[in-house]
Amino acid sequence: MRCGILFAIAAALLCGGTVLAQDPPDRCATFSQNGLAEAIACFEGEVDRYGHQVLGDTPEFETLIFKLRRVDETLENVEERVGSATLPFERVFEDVAPRLADLTGDGLPEVIVIEADQNAGAQLAVYGFNGDEAFEKVAATPFIGTRNRWLAPAGFADFNSDGRLDVAYVQTPHIGGILRIWTLRDGEMIQLASRSGLSNHRIGQAFIPGGVRDCGDGPEVVTADQTWRDTVASWLQDDGEIASRTIAEDASLETLERAVACETDG
Predict the structure, then answer these.
(1) Is pLDDT at 134 greater than 50 in this prediction?
(2) Rg (alpha carbons) of the chain, rounded to whole number
(3) Do the Cβ atoms of 169 and 150 come closer than 8 Å?
(4) What whole-number distance in Å separates Cα of residue 20 and Cα of residue 184?
(5) For residue 9, what pLDDT is reported?
(6) Residue 75 CA to chain centroid, in angstroms?
């Protein structure tokens, strides 16, 4: 039943005659929470005004569309919200697809994207519905500060064990990568920790390798080292610092995938 509801939402979402009949296309992401909350987010409106091409032939986008459906526990009361946000000319979504995760702990997802500015480079932006029902950017990390500087999200986990999801990304993975872990608190993105010397993307790749895993000892971020010789697992320690260890003397895509699946651990 959940899939049927989700596909109906998807089919009704996109304009211009686009219909998501089954699996959503690469530019979309879906979310389901115990059948009581479901959502889909998609990029629309291809543009080429930034021209960084860090993701190869992946286009830039100017519009983010979001549809949320929530059902109460009686399954009788249904709430639906639809929202969209179109960026001004000086900005684009420089990303493979939106991400959906509940960063506030209310059971409903926020939309997490990479937004790039013509002069200031990339930031991690969080979009959602505010109290007035408007769909808009509700929080963001600072822009990197220089044009054509990018970041690559790694994933979500409760890295600091406070019961809320945090987000990890690697800033400038091609020219001296810095793993940063952030949390959303009271409408602001707060950095928990950072560690240099890591990478999770190579220029031209239309995907972001590695990711977040939990093999039984808590969440870890799987990346390559900056030289792409080793696969590395990093985690947030109790002292608030990020620690890392080499888990494979190889950083092939296959090894990174196996590491995320907990099939490689040193």
Answers:
(1) yes
(2) 18
(3) no
(4) 31
(5) 42
(6) 30
Q: To the nearest 10°, the Cα dihedral for 86, 49, 43, 22? A: 150
Whether the Cβ atoms of residue 159 and residue 148 lie closer than 8 Å to each other: no
CA distances from 185 to 30, 113, 188, 195, 253 (A): 24, 18, 5, 21, 34
Instruction: For 82-107, write each residue's pLDDT tens digit.
Output: 999 999 999 999 999 999 999 999 88
Residue 18, C-beta contacts closer than 8 angstroms, at least 6 positions apart: none
Q: In this predicted model, what pLDDT tens digit does every residue of 139-186 receive, in sequence order?
A: 999 999 999 999 999 999 999 999 999 999 999 999 999 999 999 999
C-alpha pair distances (Å), 225 with each of 14, 95, 156, 220 = 39, 22, 20, 14
Could you count the other beta carbons within 10 Å of the beta carbon of residue 224? Answer: 28
Closest-CA residue to 200 (of 140, 158, 260): 260
Full strand arrangement of the beta sheet holding 151-157: 151-157, 166-171, 178-185, 188-196
Beta-bridge mates of residue 60: 47
d(CA 111, CA 127): 5
Q: Are 106 and 184 in contact (CB under 8 A)?
A: no
User: Helical H runs in the chain?
Assistant: 2-13, 253-260
